[in-house]
Every structure is written in structure tokens, then in C-alpha cells.
Amino acid sequence: MKRLLPIVLFAALVAVVAAGCRRDAVYADERSVRLEFSEEKVTFDTVFASMGTTTRMVKVYNRSKHDIELASVTLLHGRASRFRLNVDGDTSMVAQRVELQGGDSLHIYIQANIDPTESNAPFLRTDSIMFSNGQALPLEAYGRNAVYHRLKPTDTTWYVPIDCAAWRSDRPHVFLSPAAVLEGNTLTLGPGDELYFADGAMLVIDSAARLNAVGTAEQPVLFTSLRHDPWYRTLPGQWQTVWFYNFSTGNVMDHCVVENAVGGLRCYPGAGLTVTNTVIRNMSDAGIIGQTAAIEGSNLLVYDCLSSLVLIAGGDYSFDRCTLAHYWNYTSRDTTGVIVANYYPVHGGYVVGNLTRADFSNCIIYGTRSTGEVSLEAVEGYDFNYNFTNCLVRGSNWDEDPLFVDPAGDDYHLQDGSPAAGIGYNYDN
User: Fold this and answer.
1) For the chain, how big is the Rg over CA atoms in Å?
2) CA-to-CA dists, residue 130 to 17, 68, 375, angstroms
3) Fewer Cβ close by (within 10 Å): the C or N end of the chain?
4) SS3 405
5) Are 272 and 294 in contact (CB under 8 A)?
6) In 321-370, where do the E strands start and end?
7) Which residues contact 162 (CB under 8 A, 6 or more apart)?
8) What is the torsional sign of CA 30, 34, 38, 42?
9) Residue ranges of the alpha helices (H) in 232-359?
10) The overall pTM is greater than 0.85
11) CB 51 within 8 A of CB 172
């Protein structure tokens, strides 16, 4: 212990002397260093007016060996800008004396907030991040006005009722809460209608209500997620579902796109749906779920879903000229792409129903599951009628690679010489 004190005092003395001798940092002239950016332009694809956006990040690199200090990093339009910056934690309108060492980088986080206008068409807002060394990084955001559906604090229901008579097709609709078409009403959607859903939102078609969504090949009706910046553009599970409740019959969907949800189309007991010429993709559960329902499907492309079809507790189903592709890579996948059963388990027991019909014709049902992509599961004593006609099915008697052009790139056209030529989804419809 007697030797410790001199050693401690000596170390402290060295530290004090070193601090006293340390010179101030020496920076190169900031104008002599050219910065590099992780993006040449930061673009926000769709910003709904008054909602703001998710945050984008850009990296700024000093590739040189010289340390610099940027006198300022700010926005060209200053406080009038529709953009906001966070420069390595500095959220002021003007970040000053920003140090950037040689070979290092800094992070800039950007948000866009768009004011409403009277325009129904998309409009552009631009600005630039200005660096005091003379460089600039362009920013742009495409703004859109929208119709919003959201619960108010005073609402006593868990859903927002949709006023079908007042539906506007000249603007996109943004659902921030679950919404419902109530009994006795029909929601009619036409070419180019766009419905955007936030986390937890869904569209419910109530008993004795109807959905009539009819687009065109050039202008499909779109059911999609609210967030569309690059990371989220094809991410499954961002909203809930289109839910056809018990005994909602006469529903029609033609030339629609349904994407990025938990379950695409969910049909409950007694519900009836005809869905044609439609693409369903990026579902964290199933593309179509039928529970003792009646579904007619024709010319469907269903892909990047945990399962394409889950048909349970019986029902009446028919699918013609459909491509059901199973190349799911977000998580491990134990389930088959198509599940057909006359029951489903619940609370330690089963709900069972008669499967009157499950007909598949001219379909491609293929994927990465080498043991097969179809499960047929039945409880004895109930009807279980199914039929596959002229279908290429992984795990069946006709099991050949259909030679999709590029499943990894979501291109399910068939290559020349495909054994499945003439069946499956027809892109030209």
C-alpha cells in the first residue's frame, strides 16, 4: 500500500501534463474535401398530406485522410422548408461546427411534412441539404391529398363506419383504424381507386353488406400498406386484412391488387366472394382464407405469402387458371402453400363442416417445399370433395419445374419451353 500512492500521483501528474500540452484539433480547409453520399438524391415516394413520413437516413462520407469541420449543415429553404433534419443528433435548423474525421462518416436523418392543397393529383416538394463546403444533396417528396378514416376519442365502436354514398374516387383513402361497410350497404370501387392501411387497420364487409371492387388491367383497385419507403415496399404484415364477415354474399373483386398485409382476403362462414384477374402478394399469413365460405377464383396470381390458400371447416370453392407460387423467405416455412380441410382446431376441439367442393383446374401450385405444396386434411363423417384437373402441383403426379422467369424477382411469367404453358395466371387478362 505504501508504494501505491507515489504511482497514483505520478499517473495523475502525467495526465495533467499531457492535457496541458495537447494542441487544439487541426482541420483541413473544408472546401478542399469533396464529400460523398450514400444516395445521390433522397426521395420520398408518397407522402400523404398532413401526416408526415417515416424517417429516411443518408450517410455522408469523408473519404479523404484529412479531418474537416463543416461550419454548417442546413436546408436551402430554411424554416420554410417542408423537410426536417437530424444531423448526428443535432435537430436544430442549422447544425454548426460538424466535425467529420478523415475516413469517417456521419448520419443525417430526414423527415418530410406536406401541407394539404386543393390538388387531387400528386404534387412535388423539393429542397436541398446545404453543406458549408459548397456541396448540396437534393431532397424531394411526392405529396398527395387523401381521405382519412380514423377513430375519434369519443367513438364507442372499434371501427369507423364507411359512408358508401359519399365515397370519393378522386383521392386515395388512408385507413388509420379498422373500418366497416355496414349491413345493407355496398362499397363500390372503380379503376384506380387506392386504399392505404396503417398497422392494425382493416376493411370489414359486414353481414348483408357487399364489396364491388372492379378495376382494369391498366388501373387496378389497390389495397396496400401505408408505408412505401424502400424497406417497407414489399414487407408482409403491415396491416390486417379485407374481412368478409358471416353471410356477406355477392362480393366481387376484379382486377385488384392486395398486398403487404397479414391475411389478404378472409371469408367467414356463409360469406361469398368472386375474385378474378387479381394479384395477392406479401402476406405474413395466407393470401386467401376461406372458413365454411363460398369462393370462386379465376386468373389469380398469389405469391410471397406464408400460404396462398387456406380453406378450412368445409365450404364450396373453385379456382381456375391460378398461379399459386411459394418462395417465402422471410421466415422458416413449415406449412404447405395450399391447405384444404373440412375442420380446424379450436380450444382443444374441432369446428367441422362439409367440404362440398374444392375444384382446381389449369392451376400451377409450386414452390420450395420438396415434400409437396398441398395438404388435404379430413375428419371422417363429413363431406370432403376435392378435384385437381390439369394442374401442375409440387408433390403430385405432375410435378415439374414450371420454369418461372424469375421467382426471386417476382416475375412469374413462364419461360419458353415451360411444361406449364397454357395454364396458370394469364398476365394479359
Assistant:
1) 29
2) 41, 16, 59
3) N
4) strand
5) yes
6) 323-326, 338-341, 343-346, 349-352, 355-361, 364-367
7) 149, 179, 180, 181, 182, 185, 187
8) positive
9) none
10) yes
11) no
Integer CA distances (angstroms), 14 to 340, 356, 392, in order? 78, 89, 80
Q: Tell me which residue of 112, 130, 125, 126 sits closest to 75, measured CA to CA.
A: 130
Joined together, the cell numbers standing for residue 29 give: 480547409
Phi, psi of 185 (to 5 degrees): -110, 155
User: How many C-beta atoms lie closer than 10 Å to residue 210's C-beta?
Assistant: 20
Element of type H or E holding 173: strand 173-175
Scanning the structure block, which residue is given the C-alpha cell 379503376? Answer: 191
Cell of 309: 390458400
Query: Residue 11: which H helix or E strand, with range?
Result: helix 4-21
Q: Do 327 and 303 contact (CB within 8 A), yes or no?
A: yes
Hey, CA dihedral for 82, 86, 90, 95, is it positive or negative?
A: negative
pLDDT digits (tens, 9 = 90+) for 349-408: 899 999 999 999 999 999 999 999 999 999 999 999 999 999 999 999 999 999 999 999
Q: Report the relative pairing of strands 147-149 and 68-75 from DSSP bridges.
A: unpaired
How many other C-beta atoms lie within 10 A of the C-beta of residue 15? Answer: 10
